[in-house]
Amino acid sequence: MLIQEYGPLKGQMLQIMDENGVIQKPHLVPELSDQEWLELYKAMLLTRSADNKALQLQRQGRMLTYAPNTGQEAAQVGPAAAMGKQDWLVPAFRELGAWLHRGVDLKTVYLYWYGNEYGSHFAEGVKVLPIAVPIGTQVHHAVGIAMASSIKGEDDVTVTYIGDGGTSTGDFSEALNFAGVFNAPVVFIVQNNQYAISVSRQKQTKAETLVQKAVAAGIPGILVDGNDLFAMYAAAKDAIDRARLGGGPTLIEAYTYRLGAHTTSDDPTKYREDSEVAEWQPKDPLLRMKAYLINKGVWSEEQDAALSDEYGEYALAVFREVEEEGDPQLEDLFKYNFREMPAHLREQYEQYVQYLEGKVK
Amino acid sequence: MALMNLITAINHTLDLAMAQDESVVVFGEDVGLEGGVFRATVGLQEKYGQQRCFDTPLAESAIVGSAIGMAVNGLRPVAEIQFSGFVYPAFNQIISHVARMRNRTRGQRTLPLVIRMPHGGGIRALEHHSESLDTFFGHIPGLKVVVPSTPYDAKGLLLAAIRDDDPVMFLEPSKIYRAFRQEVPEEDYTIPIGKAKVLKPGTDLTVVSWGAYIHEVLKAEQILQEEGIDLEIIDLRTISPIDRDTIIESVQKTGRFVVVHEAARSFGPGAELITLVNEGAFLHLEAPPTRLAGFDITIPLPRGEHHYFLDAQRIANGIRQVAHF
Ligand SMILES: Cc1ncc(C[n+]2csc(CCOP(=O)(O)OP(=O)(O)O)c2C)c(N)n1
Q1: A322-332 burial string, b = 16+ CB within 10 Å, else e?
Q2: CATH fold of B197-323, please?
Q3: Can you give the pLDDT at residue A220?
Q4: Are A240 and A163 members of one domain?
Q5: Distance, CA of B14 to chain centre
Q6: N or C: which end of chain A has fewer CB within 10 A?
Q7: CATH of the domain at A14
Q8: Per-residue pLDDT tens over the stretch A156-214
Q9: Which residues, including other chains, have CB under 8 Å from residue B147's CB and lie 6 or more apart?
Q10: CA geometry: angle at B219 spanning B288 and A346, to 5°?
Q11: Separation of CA A96 from chain center
Q12: pLDDT single digits (tens) A264-278
């Protein structure tokens, strides 16, 4: 059990593959084939390509605000891949890799950042909640979903995300406590990307690690190299399996770095040194995984460049569809607050339609 | 005098207040090192140090709750909430304590604090970044609620708010943070809280609005002036306590009343204002007092938000109907 070795107070971080893509702890590598690891790498690459395309489109004024994921792909794809088909995902707002892997299509994601409510409307059967913009609020929902699974006697596990900033909210502490008290089958993943907009992790809490917050709630926790796909997968799998067998919640701190800006409205040079970013650049989870796969002989730089281009083109094509269809239907703005539109609201809607048609002078 | 926009005027005012009074402290998320996501507090940490201008962890309840403690203990905290849509975690503190401490202690403990926040929409931002909360705060006994519409007013009102011995919710229309610049005197002046301003006298119809919408109303006035409708325009400036006299006096003169606000229509500030007008000027009315407000819907995401927010045309259209009633 990983948790025993890497508990919050052990002062250790789980790392399986080092920063050069070399496996250092072979006995901990989860049992997937190289072909399967390659598929997960491709999922990270797709995330990166879709991210880069969104940023490019935003700079052209075609996408609204966008929150990039660059550098955090392993912390997203690893746990998503470790989930079972029936499991729930409750995101914060910076988990593109996890959403895509859990069946949210890129078009829907782009539609969200394009500013259309249908960006929160997922295909039937996708057990993923929409983005929660108010920081910290979503973790309660995850606990509730997990409690419902227990109450109903089902063995679904719920995985939820939060940022390092989010761990300062009351909601986060309350949710850990609830999860512990009700032994909820839920896995909390903190993407500690070292910043909450401009506020560094050091200023967010005096606690040495974020994972130690599990201790007070009486639940297991594990600190993981969030840029190591193997470690993220392994830790999440361990926690999910335990939750499914009735072992209750786990807190995972994915130690990672936001290589890009907070959002496209943010200028990180105002609050952090380029040298710090440069230090993290070589730890990029994609570089590490690519090195591993090339070493294994299942991938090459040429294939990588080609697939990256292909994904970029795919992302652009998806966005073009969004641009074509992305404006909401007027009635949609009115008709979803209730199952049936109340009379006063229908009147507001109809009067506005008349105004738009030029019938009101 | 210097040319300032709304955000630079706020920055300048905070600077002035901190220079004059050591008990003024400024804090919130991203407020210190970065100087605020809208740059309202830029340079203040450098100038006054980390004790007086600082970043907090991400916890609105703690931001407001600790401001209460600081105010009890002799400081004049000016807390920033990053967007009005993120003030909800602090509602418990605001409603249960900020608004009640004076009354609860029969005047013994007072809370001279200001809670600032970008307010309202129309900036094509993500969900929860466009909320108009004047209704919520205006409803709570014990809170003063201010919404400036110009850089000049923002300075005078913010200084008044900081010096006020009661808590003030200071709602800054983010849409006009950088919309235009205005001459703002460098020296100290205040604008009384609770006083509306007649922006333009007129004879035919009284329009009350505030914040970003004032500027749409002024554009609508141009359209209607050409049609021979002469508006009296009042910038409410303070939502609570409301300047009843200025409004009643105006409606007694014009006989027609329209209130224009961003918040959703039902149970919004318009309902309160129309009630005031009915109570104070009923026998002078020549048309039903009317509200032009947001639809009773969740504020749409950016692709649809233009349907929610009123522009000058829609405002002129609504006013025209009351004028011709
Ligand atoms: C309750 C609340 N307060 C403030 C904000 C504004 N805000 C958006 S993201 C953010 C920082 C979040 O940091 P973190 O939780 O570390 O996640 P990250 O952005 O790093 O992914 C802030 C302050 C918000 N969305 N919700």
Answers
A1: beeebebeeee
A2: Rossmann fold (3.40.50)
A3: 97
A4: yes
A5: 17
A6: C
A7: 3.40.50.970
A8: 999 999 999 999 999 999 999 999 999 999 999 999 999 999 999 999 999 999 999 99
A9: B119, B134, B171, B172, B173, B210, B211, B236, B237, B238, B239
A10: 50
A11: 5
A12: 999 999 999 999 999
Predicted confidence (pLDDT) at residue A1 exceeds the cutoff of 80: no
Question: Hey, are the CB atoms on A199 and B127 less than 8 Å from each other?
Answer: no
At CB < 8 Å, which residues of chain A contact B?
Answer: 64-65, 114-117, 119, 133-136, 165-166, 168-171, 196-199, 203-205, 265-266, 270-271, 326-328, 330, 332-334, 337, 344-345, 348-349, 352, 355, 360-361
CB B206 within 8 A of CB B251: yes
The predicted-structure confidence for B196-235, as pLDDT tens digits, reads as follows 999 999 999 999 999 999 999 999 999 999 999 999 999 9
A5 — pLDDT class (breaks 50, 70, 90): confident
Laid out side by side, the sheet with A186-192 consists of: A88-90, A158-163, A186-192, A250-255, A221-225
Per the CB < 8 Å rule, is A198 touching B34? yes
Give domain limits for chain B.
2-184, 197-323
- What pLDDT, in 10s, does the model give residues B173-207? 999 999 999 999 999 999 999 999 999 999 999 99
pLDDT the model gives residue A340: 96
B279: Cβ contacts below 8 Å, ≥ 6 apart: none
pLDDT tier for residue A11 given thresholds of 50, 70 and 90: confident
Q: Which CATH architecture has domain B2-184?
A: 3-Layer(aba) Sandwich (3.40)
Strands A199-200 and A195-196, sheet pairing:
antiparallel
Question: What's the helix, strand, coil split of chain B in %, to 5?
Answer: 40, 20, 40
Chain A nearest C-alpha distance from B257 (Å): 19
Its ipTM equals 0.96
